[in-house]
Amino acid sequence: MSQRNRVAYFYDADVANFHYGAGHPMKPHRLALTHNLVLAYGLYRKMEIYRPYRASEADLTTFHLPEYVDFLKHVGPDRTKSDREMYQLQQKFLNDDCPVFDGLYDFCSIYTGASLQAAVKLNHKNCDIAINWSGGLHHAKKFEASGFCYVNDIVIAILELLKHHSRVLYIDIDIHHGDGVEEAFYTTDRVMTVSFHKYGQEFFPMTGSMYETGVGAGKFTSVNVPLKDYIDDEGYMALFKPIMKKIIETYQPGTIVLQCGADSLGCDRLGRFNLSIKGHGEAVEFIKSFGLPLMVLGGGGYTIKNVARCWCYETGVLVGEELPKDLPYNEYYQYFGPDWQLHPSINSALKENQNTKEYETAIITHIEENLRKLQGAPSVQMQEIPPDSLPMTTTEYDEK
């Protein structure tokens, strides 16, 4: 592996065993499908694979309210039925789409610990790219679960990155607006948040207008790209590449966090976009091409066989490996029928892109005008670097 492309990959087999409940669209089991494809393609040979650190209460309270973290630690399906106070806290902290399930706190600890460890490794230049497909839960707020997300691992990881980097760029290609991350950094110029998402028609979370640009010191460092239904690869790249090139040139981040929610693929159970797996991966490849320290996270994605294909393909992109189109045999091979292909036809020619060229041009013009108002990359006064949130000792994953 070249010195310039050292990839660290974080996976804990336990994370795939949690269950949100019958009928719930969020399926952590998709992570097992993804990991098995990664192993079957032999991509582990191109990466350093780690069983991740598990985040502590202290780690979670770097962003979240201590009362909320304590609730997550002690809540359970049985307690909410028998304990009136716990039931009242559930009504306060959890939305209807965020159920209480067995092991909820452990689930949050696993996916957040992996993102936090990825940040520490990037800070110490122990890798150039860090991958945590279990992370990317971008809707969680300081004291509220939202949109299937309980702990915002992205915010916690970015806070760690800010110990070593003056400016962090966050990019979100999930179909849903990255509202939790944007809200956390809305008043600072040290983090720029960029979200490409469906907007309008009361689509969750009903935020992410192009006119949400930040306030105070954070003015113009929140960038939203609100999209209409059925955007395809060509239309998406016509926006993504010029916008991201201009942002990186203007903001000059020290590191990038890329959330790769796969619900922006065509045929997603909850999605309304029309991207192919190659199109989604092209966004990842473009951001990788800038050569900046890069954290890559998962996120949404509710047609699990396509989520696994997408994130496996993007793992290949990140390690520089072109993967054969025929899926190798693996433990979950039956999930990928009837085609057993890495790139099935999931973008439909019958669904016309509702984003006109005029609309896309207007978005680009609006964003470029706001970037000019930034007047260059914000500067940060030199200060002593705070200690890491976790020891640098790590455990290599032993099930390759």
Find the structural class using helix and strand composition: alpha/beta
**Major beta sheet, specifics?**
9 strands, mixed
Number of DSSP helical runs: 12
> What CATH architecture would you give?
3-Layer(aba) Sandwich
CATH topology: Arginase, Chain A
Strand order of the largest sheet: 6-5-4-7-8-3-1-2-9
Instruction: Count every beta strand, where a strand is a DSSP E run of 2 or more residues.
Output: 9
Overview in brief:
This protein has 400 residues and is of the alpha/beta class. It has twelve helices and nine strands.
Sequence-ordered SSE layout with sheet pairings:
Elements: E1 7-10, H1 30-40, E2 48-51, H2 57-60, H3 66-74, H4 77-82, H5 84-93, H6 104-123, E3 129-132, H7 153-161, E4 168-172, H8 179-184, E5 191-198, E6 222-227, H9 233-251, E7 255-259, H10 277-288, E8 294-297, H11 304-319, H12 357-374, E9 395-396
Give the key terms.
nine-stranded mixed sheet; about 35% helix; globular; 12 helices; alpha/beta; about 400 residues; Arginase, Chain A
